[in-house]
Amino acid sequence: MSGLAVAYGKKPKLGDINAMMRAIAHRGPTASGVYQADGIVMAQNYLRADGARPDSDVPVRSPDNPNLAICYDGQMGNWAELASAHGVPDGPFREERLILALYQKYGRGMLEYLGDTIFALVIFDGKDILAARDLLGIKTLFYAERNSTLFFASELKELLPVSKAVYEFPNGCAMDGSGHLSSFAELPEKPPRPWRRSPKRMAADIRGIIEQSFRNRIDFSLPTGGLLSGGLDSSVINSIASRAYKEKKGKAARLKTFALGVGESNDIVSARLVASHIDSEHHELIVSLEDMLAVLPKVIYHLESFDPSLVRSSVANYLVSRYAHEQGIQILLSGEGGDEVFCGYRYLADYPAEALFGEQMACIGRLHNNASLRLDRMNMANSIRVVAPLISGKLLDYALAIAPEYKQMPDGADKIEKWIMRKAYEKQLPQPVVWRRKQEFSQGSGSADALTAYFEEQVPDRELTEAQAAQPLIRSKEELHYFRLFTGYFGSGPAVATVGQWLCL
């Protein structure tokens, strides 16, 4: 994970790019650089976990064509397969070099090969640019235009020194140097033909895909730890990681895992059980309301959102990520993505089987400016690379063909969310964890109740009424407080339109 800033057009200014890069120094303190050519200025920074060194020459240029350069923020799940097919050797910045090789061969068509890649990128070929963002919008990208110059940025805050008219770059879209946007990928409107396989076979397939996704992304070459909430998804990833860590480092080696709670929260208790089961070196961070309030301004500045559900979980994520950084961790594992892939959210139980696929697509379609922000921003704020093996193109494609009753299994008058995922790991994890019902990170950690109650008491009813008259999108006293912090940083204009709001508070 890294950060980028690009200006393309009539006489782009290095000073603008330098100002943009200062706003995202946290995204890449190890290496940074600038590439300039006629009509373009490109800048990139990297973490050590991206394979960078202080003397790295970035942005990356093609070894075959020095006029071909890329700014890239992403993670590729099928690098080995693509690299073998296209003759790209391993080594520093291997993903960037592979993408440039694909661009040389296929032009814009190379985007079709990035189905198992989360990315935001800008390529310059000496004449024109190609900017693009992955289908799910897991990697963030923003753009603006000023005086016939296009600007691209990893974070919203980067663009404010050059323009107040800022826009989120649409996920699954590409843009050329004229500013023309076009779609290169879309979520399906209809489900594929469902698998005619037994639940036992599907469970085995799921385990195999997740295992391979993990091994394609993690090699423990740098200090690596796991975010362990004690929910199913994080428990699965940390279980795989602990086993792989022992295979590489020896049977006595113990993966570092990290959990956060407001007191003895559900997450703390459940994570403790999993850590014992997988034999990890477990770290608990117990925080108070005061601890959360102290970092709220910083969290919203980095998060660039005021949605209460997202902010609450991001506060917890920020604190535990900061703690992991203090312990020397450079890469953190996350279970993010499982709820979207396997229909894990409780509200989806309200929909009949025939409507579940459509609602799942709507849920996935909200990732780009909601849950994916937490995944990227809270860890990058602490200069940590985060890896989420459940966000895999292959896993998503497989899961879409699983019949709805195996995702939301009827259980009397209720439904068991993510049932097939639970069955896949019921023999590998403690039963209370496998069958623990879904709680959002903010609920399980305890941050939701504490923050909501605090702002209900602190913000007068009159202030909420007046604010809602001016901004109907504000839904609660808590959201009003976050909205004020957000607009204090980013203004009340176009930046507000980039914020996604979850279905409920």
Describe this structure in words.
There is one protein chain. The chain has 505 residues and is α+β, with helices and mostly antiparallel strands. It has 2 domains: 2-183, Aminohydrolase, N-terminal nucleophile (Ntn) domain (Glutamine Phosphoribosylpyrophosphate, subunit 1, domain 1), CATH 3.60.20; 199-456, HUPs (Rossmann fold, 3-Layer(aba) Sandwich). The protein has helices spanning 14-22, 79-86, 94-106, 156-159, 199-217, 232-249, 266-278, 289-303, 308-326, 338-342, 353-365, 371-380, 393-400, 404-407, 419-424, 431-434, 441-445, 447-458, 461-470, 477-490, and strands at residues 2-9, 31-37, 40-46, 60-61, 69-76, 117-124, 129-133, 142-146, 149-153, 166-168, 173-176, 181-183, 224-227, 256-261, 281-286, 331-333, 385-387, 408-411, 414-417. The strands form 4 sheets. The chain has a 6-stranded antiparallel β-sheet. Helix 2 packs across helix 3 (94-106), helix 5 crosses helix 6 (232-249) and helix 8 packs across helix 9 (308-326).
Secondary structure tally, helices: 20
Question: What's the arrangement of strands in the largest beta sheet?
Answer: 2-3-1-9-8-10
Largest sheet, described in full? 6 strands, antiparallel
Approximate strand percentage: 15-25%
Query: Outline, from the CA principal axes?
Result: globular
Say how many strands there are: 19
- Give the N-to-C terminal Cα separation: 30 Å
Secondary-structure-derived class: alpha+beta
* CATH third-tier fold name of the largest domain: Rossmann fold
Mean pLDDT: 95
- The domain tally reads 2
**CATH structural architecture of the largest domain:** 3-Layer(aba) Sandwich
Helix content: 40-55%
The top level CATH class name of the largest domain: Alpha Beta
Overall radius of gyration: 22 Å
